[in-house]
């Protein structure tokens, strides 16, 4: 059973992924997500990274469909997604496996760190539009060095997907959550 915090997080994810805004997640939404992420400069410049990003995006669809599309109609609504909450903890390995690809896609200058500007780009690509983030990056950047290392990013990425604790900074990896104060 999803907590109120998990409902808020999953609604934000659902809204970002429902590219055509029809109230369902469908395979074509994930193809559109792959195309959206494919427009990131580093992804555009690297065919291998383009394929990895596409594989991650379509892999999210395949995992969701296999887990919750029980009537096999190719559509997942919010209730279907909420039914998956109890399985999130078991997906830690799968989530961790996607962190490197997302990191590489967002690390535009390939310096091995995600800057504030690169993180803003992640949020904008995630949502498909510009998003005001306020102090989100400051919450993520716990050592206040102005960047996220690959290891920090991976930890935050897992928190984003799996955590039910609103105090964990990774919950805000993809931007602020409506009704939940950051920090």
From TrEMBL:
Matching InterPro entries: EF-hand-dom_pair, EF_Hand_1_Ca_BS, EF_hand_dom, EF_hand_pair_protein_CML-like
Keyword annotations of the record: Metal-binding, Repeat
Organism: Streptomyces ambofaciens
Positions of the EF-hand domain: 5-40, 56-91, 128-163
Stated name of the protein: Calcium sensor EFh
UniProt keyword annotation of Metal-binding present: yes
Gene3D superfamilies for the chain: EF-hand (1.10.238.10)
């Amino acid at each position: 059973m999803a907590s109120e915090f998990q409902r808020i997080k999953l609604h934000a994810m659902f809204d970002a992924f429902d590219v055509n805004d029809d109230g369902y997640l469908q395979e074509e939404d994930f193809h559109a997500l792959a195309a959206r992420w494919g427009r990131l400069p580093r992804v555009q410049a690297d065919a291998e990274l383009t394929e990895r990003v596409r594989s991650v995006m379509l892999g999210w669809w395949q995992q969701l469909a296999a887990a919750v599309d029980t009537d096999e109609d190719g559509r997942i609504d919010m209730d279907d997604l909420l039914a998956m909450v109890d399985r999130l903890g078991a997906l830690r390995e799968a989530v961790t496996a996607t962190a490197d690809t997302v990191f590489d896609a967002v690390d535009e200058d390939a310096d091995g760190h995600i800057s504030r500007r690169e993180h803003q780009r992640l949020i904008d690509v995630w949502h498909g539009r510009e998003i005001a983030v306020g102090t989100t990056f400051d919450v993520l950047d716990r050592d206040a060095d102005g960047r996220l290392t690959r290891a920090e990013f991976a930890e935050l990425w897992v928190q984003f997907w799996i955590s039910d604790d609103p105090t964990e900074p990774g919950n805000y990896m993809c931007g602020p959550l409506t009704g939940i104060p950051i920090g």
